[in-house]
Write a sequence for this structure.
């Protein structure tokens, strides 16, 4: 009851806007809210999205960049070629300087990739680099990467946050003072309060960045974020405002609201290794019983998009398969009876309230399931417990849950369903074969066909229920331009952001 | 002193054990979800988590006694220096809240007692009833809406640091201090009222009045001084509660204080920080309680400690 009441009072008091004397807004300066303080600033040892939000593409960049439409574009490598999909030769852009003044050379690329492959250096996604056989420096601006086998995701790997290029000599300060080739440099980190980035005057892209200074303020609470926006303490919030405040902010002439797509698929997971969820008919019955439109309306105030599989609309291979198993409670009851549960069964949702949408969605889904006889109760557990009980991190052997809800924010994560050890515990050799084939299929058209097949198969087999794509809700003061609309990668690229005159 | 040391020993043991039975492995949280078993073992070894728990405890206490609380896993900084830097926010915040609490509660409590069963009493009690009923975070939001969003007098949150002088620092702590102190103010006002009321019924007050002493003297020299014992007891306990309450208000006002440090450390399983902060705060509270005991002696010469 607390939240809606607060929201109501904020709405009532916020109705009459006043000029704020302590405004953050000055030309060239942007104060942006982020909910979590990054645990260090090293993307090569920690996968936290809070680090990427500050550092990725702002301070450090990769050979290839994911642009605002989700496309891979040449970045520190101005081009590359391969004839056999086993040897990739990258040609580096000349004259690109790190913020410490030294020019980027091929040896830096070799150093960064070698370090990522090295098991001694805690890289969070080391497995992605396992495919690399060798990194060979041809000359100062040419580097060849040889692969052990064909890997269709290799180029994407070089565009990921863990593949940013940094100068060898600055490797020890990555955690607190990351050096890179990006449009900004880290000027100040006041622990617990803010991180300040300033313009890299020698940035290799002419005319960028447009801002002189960016302040990331750590504000964990959505209501405090709203108040900070309204009082003028901050200029923008990208991850901090919930959907319940969006309609009100849309009506407010001081702000602009940007609603976009993300790679965050809010997924109802089922323990496929456990009865009755091991029965496909039960999983389909659960899918038929859920009215996703209603869930989206109730939990997200209608913001976001309905999903039918693990692939979200930012993915170039996305197809809409959400109609394949439509909302149909009558059919759900029939399937339950066929599976031997004419009177339904009892189930427990384990959700972590740290992510507000999990509890809200579970409440609505539970009431919908009740209509077909599935008696679901909701158990809220702390995030650490969720990770060990549901997600089954080591030393957990078998996940201990019936159903759960969580957002899967990784892009290109369909492989999770090809991993029988993943917490869904779905073991389908047909799907695993399809996925393996897609991993070694470099031809774009053929690969797309495989991805369409995988999406259709996921929808029909229902190892999980994909509820909706979590929207990107960015709120800024009027006059802020250049922010990305969608979130195709875990980036908060501020290089093109500016105040309009 | 022996009781003090025993309390601290018990606290240190409790903290150490509780932190270790929490689900969630710090090595996993450091390395992320796709870490290999070998690298996990290496990190656990680096953190000393592979050694027997009593050995870990002995090492920790031994270092803590020398002022070394270990290193933060998350920030890679000494825990002691982290605590000190965050204390620059939390200590002034707590003291400011305590100052507001005492400065408002004692006069109002005395006022209510002297106007017993009259409008002043009812007004004060209504006010304090409100203070008890309104949770701190909610009061904080209301204050932000009024003073920052509507009037624009102070910022909605954050802390500018003491670098730019005392006033900018104080200004960012004013609203959170009021929000933090509100509940405790209400409790203390009620305590003061009943303590003073009780004393006013004593024989010696009658005697003082019969002597023809001015009512002001009766009130302050005889009544209030004797009523102070329960008031100080409650206020001492409240100081500890203020310190604990700052966790929530530091989140509402996004202040970089001890409370938020702790909260973040718990979710990141930054064990050295959690242990260090809890031990530190417990020591502070134990010290405050000891100071209250000494204060008793000053207030009432009959109380002596052997």
């Amino acid at each position: 009851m607390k939240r809606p009441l607060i929201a109501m009072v904020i709405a009532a008091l916020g109705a009459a806007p006043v000029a704020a004397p302590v405004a953050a807004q000055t030309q060239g300066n942007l104060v942006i809210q982020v909910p979590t303080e990054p645990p260090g600033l090293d993307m090569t040892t920690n996968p936290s999205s809070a680090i990427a939000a500050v550092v990725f593409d702002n301070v450090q960049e990769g050979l290839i960049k994911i642009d605002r439409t989700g496309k891979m574009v040449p970045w520190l490598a101005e081009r590359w070629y391969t004839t056999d999909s086993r040897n990739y030769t990258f040609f580096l852009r000349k004259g690109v300087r790190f913020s410490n003044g030294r020019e980027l050379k091929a040896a830096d690329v070799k150093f960064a990739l070698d370090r990522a492959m090295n098991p001694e250096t805690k890289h969070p996604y080391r497995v992605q680099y396992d495919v690399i056989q060798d990194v060979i420096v041809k000359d100062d601006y040419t580097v060849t990467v040889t692969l052990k086998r064909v890997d269709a995701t290799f180029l994407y790997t070089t565009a990921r946050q863990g593949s940013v290029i940094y100068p060898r000599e600055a490797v020890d300060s990555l955690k607190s003072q990351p050096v890179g080739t990006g449009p900004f440099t880290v000027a100040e980190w006041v622990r617990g309060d803010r991180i300040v980035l300033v313009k890299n005057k020698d940035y290799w892209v002419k005319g960028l960045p447009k801002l002189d200074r960016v302040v990331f303020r750590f504000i964990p609470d959505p209501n405090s974020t709203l108040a900070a926006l309204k009082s003028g303490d901050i200029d923008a919030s990208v991850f901090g405002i919930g959907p319940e405040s969006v309609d009100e902010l849309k009506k407010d002439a001081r702000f602009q609201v940007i609603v976009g797509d993300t790679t965050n698929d809010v997924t109802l997971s089922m323990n496929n290794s456990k009865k009755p969820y091991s029965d496909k008919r039960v999983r389909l019955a659960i899918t038929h019983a859920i009215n996703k439109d209603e869930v989206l309306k109730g939990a997200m105030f209608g913001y976001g998009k309905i999903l039918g599989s693990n692939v979200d609309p930012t993915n170039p291979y996305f197809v809409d398969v959400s109609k394949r198993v439509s909302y149909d409670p009558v059919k759900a009851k029939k399937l339950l009876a066929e599976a031997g549960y004419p009177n339904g069964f009892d189930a427990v949702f384990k959700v972590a309230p740290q992510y507000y949408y999990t509890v809200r969605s579970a409440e609505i889904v539970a009431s919908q399931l009740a209509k077909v006889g599935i008696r679901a109760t909701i158990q809220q557990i702390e995030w650490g417990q969720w990770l060990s009980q549901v997600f089954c991190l080591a030393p957990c052997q078998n996940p201990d849950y019936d159903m759960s809800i969580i957002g899967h924010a990784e892009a290109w994560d369909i492989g999770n369903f090809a991993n029988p050890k993943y917490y869904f515990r779905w073991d389908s050799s047909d799907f695993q074969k399809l996925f393996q084939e897609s991993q070694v299929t470099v031809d774009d058209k053929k690969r797309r066909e495989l991805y369409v097949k995988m999406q259709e198969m996921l929808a029909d087999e229902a190892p999980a229920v994909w509820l909706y794509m979590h929207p990107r809700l960015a709120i800024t003061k009027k006059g802020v331009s250049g922010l990305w609309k969608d979130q195709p990668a875990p980036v908060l690229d501020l290089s093109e952001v500016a105040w309009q005159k | 002193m022996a009781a003090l040391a025993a309390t601290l020993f018990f606290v240190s043991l409790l903290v150490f054990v509780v932190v270790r039975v929490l689900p969630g492995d710090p090595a996993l949280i450091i390395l992320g979800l796709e870490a290999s078993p070998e690298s996990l073992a290496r990190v656990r070894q680096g953190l000393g988590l592979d050694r027997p728990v009593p050995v870990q405890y002995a090492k920790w206490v031994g270092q803590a006694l020398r002022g070394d609380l270990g290193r933060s896993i998350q920030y890679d900084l000494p825990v002691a220096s982290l605590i000190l830097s965050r204390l620059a926010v939390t200590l002034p915040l707590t003291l400011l809240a305590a100052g507001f609490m005492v400065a408002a509660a004692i006069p109002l409590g005395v006022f209510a007692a002297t106007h017993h069963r009259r409008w002043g009493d009812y007004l004060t009690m209504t006010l304090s009833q409100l203070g008890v009923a309104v949770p701190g975070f909610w009061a904080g939001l209301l204050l932000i809406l009024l003073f920052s969003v509507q009037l624009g007098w102070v910022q909605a949150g954050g802390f500018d640091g003491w670098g730019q002088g005392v006033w900018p620092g104080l200004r960012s702590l004013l609203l959170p201090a009021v929000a933090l102190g509100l509940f405790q103010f209400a409790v203390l006002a009620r305590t003061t009222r009943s303590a003073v009321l009780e004393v006013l019924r004593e024989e010696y007050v009658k005697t003082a009045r019969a002597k023809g002493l001015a009512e002001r003297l009766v009130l302050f020299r005889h009544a209030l001084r004797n009523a102070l014992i329960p008031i100080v007891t409650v206020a001492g306990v409240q100081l500890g509660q203020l310190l604990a309450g700052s966790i929530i208000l530091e989140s509402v006002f996004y202040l970089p204080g001890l409370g938020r440090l702790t909260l973040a450390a718990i979710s990141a399983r930054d064990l050295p920080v959690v242990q260090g902060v809890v031990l530190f705060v417990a020591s502070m509270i134990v010290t405050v309680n000891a100071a209250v005991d000494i204060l008793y002696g000053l207030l009432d010469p009959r109380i002596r400690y052997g």
About this structure: Chain B touches chain A through 56 residues (CB under 8 Å). The mean pLDDT of chain B is 82. The radius of gyration of chain B is 24 Å.
